[in-house]
Amino acid sequence: MDNKPGYSQFAGEMLKQLPKGIFLSVSTGEEINTMTIGWGSIGFMWQKPVIIVLVRPSRYTYSLLQKAQEFTVSIPLNSEMKKSLAIAGSSSGRDIDKFGTLNLTAQPGKCISSPVIGECGLIYECRVIFQQTMDPETLDMDIREKFYAHEDYHVMYFGEILACYKNSQAD
Ligand SMILES: Cc1cc2nc3c(=O)[nH]c(=O)nc-3n(C[C@H](O)[C@H](O)[C@H](O)COP(=O)(O)O)c2cc1C
């Protein structure tokens, strides 16, 4: 079954939830984690549907992404996940098992090894095809001062969308 056509069909739902937080999940095979992201983009490049996520190197998720080179994005389509998004966005997988603590179901991905969150209604599965650390020299000075006082510049991960689907297990 081709799961990709939905990537643009559901983009509006993803972009609407993004500023409020969505889950970025990664597994290396040995380690598994999820974190909240509020920045990102979805589009089309290199003849592929692509999601861009921005992760600071200080995040535990960064070290997993570097190894796994793949990720999933799980988007809650109702407001029930608000508390989980807040905790996944303020605690680190270095200190707690977020899936266990937040009672999140790590459902197997359809195309990749990284898990998707069973309680979320919209899912993207991605393989990293390009990554780039932000170059402060080319960054607007106001943005630099506002967001990068500690010079923890985001790494942008460009993920080819391998699958995009509504998760029937979530309401
Ligand atoms: C609403 C919200 C959006 C966030 N967006 C991002 C983001 O886009 N990129 C990022 O690096 N951190 C973002 N964070 C912060 C991380 O989620 C947070 O530092 C988290 O504890 C990292 O978890 P980890 O150490 O387990 O990877 C966001 C936090 C919240 C609450």
Explain this structure:
The chain has 171 residues and is of the alpha+beta class. It has one domain: Pnp Oxidase, Chain A (Roll). 22% of the residues lie in helices and 35% in strands. A 7-stranded antiparallel β-sheet has the order 2-1-5-8-9-4-3. A hairpin with a 4-residue loop joins strand 1 (22-27) and strand 2. It starts with 5 loop residues before the first helix and ends in a 5-residue tail after the last strand. The relative contact order is 0.23. The protein binds flavin mononucleotide.
At a glance:
The protein contains six helices and nine strands, in the order ααββββαβααβββαβ. It is of the alpha+beta class.
Key traits:
single chain, alpha+beta, 7-stranded antiparallel beta sheet, 6 helices, 171 residues, binds flavin mononucleotide, Pnp Oxidase, Chain A
Shape: globular
Give the % helix: 10-25%
Low-confidence stretches: none
Supply the CATH architecture: Roll
Give the radius of gyration: 15 Å
Mean pLDDT: 95
CATH class: Mainly Beta
Distance between the termini: 22 Å
Order of helices and strands: HHEEEEHEHHEEEHE
